[in-house]
Amino acid sequence: MSGVNIQGLSIKFGHNEVIKGLDLQVHEGEFLVLLGPSGCGKSTLLHSIAGLIDVSGGSIHIGGADMTDAEPAERGIGMVFQSYALYPTMTVERNMSFGPRVAGVPKAEIERRVARAAEMLQLTPLLSRKPAQLSGGQRQRVAIGRALVREAGVFLFDEPLSNLDAKLRAELRRELKLLHQNLGNTMIYVTHDQVEAMTLASRIVVMKSGVIQQIGTPAEVYETPANLFVAGFLGAPAINFVSAQVGADGRSLQGVLPLQLAEGRVKAGQSLVLGIRPEHVRLQSDGRWRATVQLVEPMGNHQVVWMKLGEQSFSVLVHDGRRITAGDELAFDIEESALSIFDAGTEQRL
């Protein structure tokens, strides 16, 4: 088991700096997820840890050793890519054992590793099959198993579930989490899917334009986002953003949701953005505000109700069985203790 310590990492492609002086400490045995939109640098960062991309500055230490300029084979990592990249003419067993065979690991040891990985990934009955005889989920299990037989200190996953359908993604998410619980190895996982990040991670690293925006547990980045970007990226349906202006008394908010804030939290005349999660809105007959329903999305065990609040749409999660239709006027209130407040200029949390 190994930790990863990245200091001042910079990566440039030509004149384009895609990673900008990045510092990151990955603790031994944790499941760290790199989360962000396409082009934010998360896969580039992962590939630099694997040694697949040359860095322009800074250092990468794995297990306490400086691996900044080391070859991939020297880094003690196992990697799973988005594409399965299996050898089509080899059986599952031969695909999984390819790396150790090339490295000259004794046959008995290879057999032990393959048998262990196959059992954990439910691949034992499939060891004699070839990739063409497997489903997409089974092929991705083989790709994961090929990384596991290396018995590496750090496992790297580059969006390994993105090619699978929703049901298979959910199944493999659970298997990956159980795998981490059983192995206890350090795992670094790249995704743009917030559900994967929230369900898998010990900690989440939210990235934008090559810069880390926030690091924290799933609960921390969801409940106390550091800025507007993090708040808007996490959550489905997305957080509601409402503009407000602080009154002359330094406490009252002017806008579509007039509120009274604790003294000293904001300044008179300050422009704010209120972040309100849909689950923190309560539809109730004695609510302080009223809005008209635009759209109702039935989701099985709950409904997403979209209302017109001023000039913007405002979403609410409704978990009871009440019938709501477009055009209804509803009263609502919000849980002020769960409110996120951001400075409109800096976009940072206050």
Automatic annotation (TrEMBL):
Keywords: ATP-binding, Cell membrane, Membrane, Nucleotide-binding, Sugar transport, Transport. Residues 4-234 form the ABC transporter domain. PROSITE patterns: ABC_TRANSPORTER_1, ABC_TRANSPORTER_2. GO terms for molecular function: ATP binding. It holds the Pfam family ABC_tran. This is Multiple sugar transport system ATP-binding protein. It comes from Roseateles saccharophilus (Pseudomonas saccharophila).
